């Protein structure tokens, strides 16, 4: 039903077309042929219903769609390391990288021109990625500058109806006491409706975790899983418990940078402690949230 060529050899391109199923087979040319090479076949191969096409970047548009591929790398869904087989340090080795490419043993070569002096930003870690009701439920952990610790959140990303469809709006759901990012996403049966209407839903955690402050695990309503979505002002809590800044500033910026979602159209809701947090966030930021 489907064939493709990725060799760049014109004879293989023709073979790929002619082995495609007569009547509906589709053959795609991916490989780049040498300069001056031409492809040919008998008209009968196309008259009988085969479809011959080509693609660059997998059909992704470079300005509007390739950034989405970059996002999949940044959130850990696609690893680039298997495709980079050679690394060279110093611009003086650029000819060696070209020789490696010509040798046939190199997929991609990276030449490190010099040390930049910049500390690479630590990317989020993808902890879960499962298919769910017309979308994907993803769980990620990342370093939070607001909370000065590793934070975890989940996000439901609906399927786009078309590649050119508008980006989905985002609903932030704040959970209650003793909850984590997994509570509402597991129990609420929200995904079927969110997938139907094209709504992304983000589930933050309810507090910092593992910061080992004295007394943070002594009570269900203070400390771990009870951050109340406010900024603590008293030591030692004020170093880590900056949940208001986290859910209203840092997390939305992170989500809009990692996922194909609308960075402007957002709303916020929650239950119990999270309902109170949602009202605080909405009332203190006029115009930020649609509802």
Word description of this protein:
The chain has 291 residues and is α/β, with parallel strands linked by helices. 25% of the residues lie in helices and 21% in strands. The strands form 3 sheets. The chain has a 6-stranded mixed beta sheet with strand order 6-7-8-10-9-11. Strands 1-2-3 form a 3-stranded parallel beta sheet, with helices on one face. It has a two-stranded parallel ribbon with strand order 4-5. It is globular and about 75 Å long. It starts with a strand and ends in an 8-residue tail after the last helix. The model has no long low-confidence stretch (mean pLDDT 94).
Strand order of the largest sheet: 6-7-8-10-9-11
Order of helices and strands: EHEHEHEHEEEEEHHEHEH
Query: What integer is the average pLDDT?
Result: 94
Q: Structural class of the secondary structure composition?
A: alpha/beta
What is the strand tally?
Answer: 11
- What's the multimeric state? single chain
The number of distinct helices, counting runs of at least 4 residues, comes to 8
Task: Catalogue the unreliable spans.
Answer: none
Distance between the termini: 48 Å
Over the alpha carbons, how many angstroms does the gyration radius reach? 25 Å
Beta fraction: 15-25%
Shape: globular
